[in-house]
Amino acid sequence: MGVVRVAQSIMVASLAMAMSLEGHPAQAEPSAMIKVDGSSTVYLLTEAVAEEFQNANRGKIRVTVGIAGTGGGFKKFCRGEIDIADASRPILKEEMALCQKSGITYYELPVAFDALTVAVSPMNTWVTSMTIEELKKIWEPAAQGKISKWNQVRSNWPDAPLVLFGAGSDSGTFDYFTDAIVGKAKSSRGDYTASEDDNVLVQGIEKNKNALGYIPFAYYSAQMKKLKAVAVTGKNGAILPSVESVVNGSYQPLSRPLFLYISEHAAKRPEVKSFVEYYLTEGPKLIAEVRYIPLADQTYGMVRQRFQKGIVGTGFGGEPEVGLPVEEIMKRSPKQ
Fold first, then answer.
1. CA separation (Å) from 103 to 87, 108, 218, 308, 317?
2. DSSP letters for 138-198
C-alpha cells in the first residue's frame, strides 16, 4: 500500500507542477474549500492527508494541493492567496516582511523529517561516499565553469564530465542544501540542471552514469532501483540516509524538518481548523507510506498544543538554521 501510494503521489506531482490538484472524486458536492501550495517535498504527505481527509468528510470539503515550490508557496501565502503553505525550510526574513505587510499571521508547525539524499546513477561504479568538503567544492559558486570533471573532485575518480542535477531556486530544498553544504542559503553554482520538480531530477540522475544530484528522501526511497545513494562523510563518519540515521541524529547536516504554515485568519474557519487537527493526528500514520520520517510522539504533542493554544509565529526568526532539533524549535518564543 505504501509503495503504491508514494508512486501514485510522485506521478501526480510530476503532472501537477505549478498547478493545483483536486484530489479524488468526491462523494458529495463540496461545501468548503481549503487551498494548499508550496513544497514539492511536503506535497507527498499533504496530498496523502488531503485524500484521507476528503474521504473522511465524504467529499463535503475540498482540498487543493499545489507544488509551486517552498518559495513560490510563501509568495502566494503572504499575498493571502492560499490558506496553508507546505515548506521544506523555515520562513525567511523577506517572506516574514511580506506577510507582515499583508497583515498575515501564521502558525509554524513541524510535521515530519526529511533526509536530503545525494544520489548517483547505479551505473556509477566509483562513488560510495563523499565528504562535505567535496560536496562544497562541487556546489559552491566558485566551482561554476571550473569543477567540471569527476577527477577534479577526487584524483582517483575518472576523467569524465560531472553532470549535475539539483533543486531550482524557488525550492526549499535548494535553500537548505546550499546552507548545509556551502554554508550560505541560495549560494550555488548555476551551471546545472535545476528543477522544482523532483521527478525531473530523478530521471536525469538515473539515465546518466556521470550524474550527481540531490533530492528529498521520499523520491530516492521510491526509486531505489534506479538510483544509488551516496554516504555523506561528516563528524559521524560516512552515513547513508535512512530512517534510523535521521532518528538517531547521525545523518548530518542533511536531515531537516518539514513544515506547515497556516494562516491564523484561515484557521478560524471550521474546515481549515478541522483539516489541520486531522493532519496532526492522522498525518503521522501516513508518513511511512510516503517514505518520510515521523517526529517523536512527544514532539507531535508539542505541535498540537501550539496550534490548540493559538501560538503564532516562527521559532527561527527568519534565519535558516541547520541541524536544529525540533524540540528546541518548539521551546522557543515564536516571532512574527
1. 20, 16, 35, 21, 17
2. HHSGGGTTT--BGGGTSTTS-S-B-EEEEE-TT-HHHHHHIIIIISSTT---S-SEEES-H
Could you read off the pLDDT of 76-122 as tens digits, one per residue?
999 999 999 999 999 999 999 999 999 999 999 999 999 999 999 99
> Where do the domains of the chain lie?
2-114+257-331, 115-247
CB-based burial label for 278 (10 Å; 0-12, 13-18, 19+): middle
Q: Was domain 115-247 assigned CATH 3.40.50.300? A: no
Query: From 3.30.160.40, 3.10.20.90, 3.40.190.10, 3.40.50.720, which CATH number describes the 2-114+257-331 domain?
Result: 3.40.190.10
| Amino acid identity at 235 | K
Residue tagged 573532485 (cell numbers): 153
- Name the region of 137 (left: φ>0; alpha: ψ -120 to 50; beta: rest): alpha
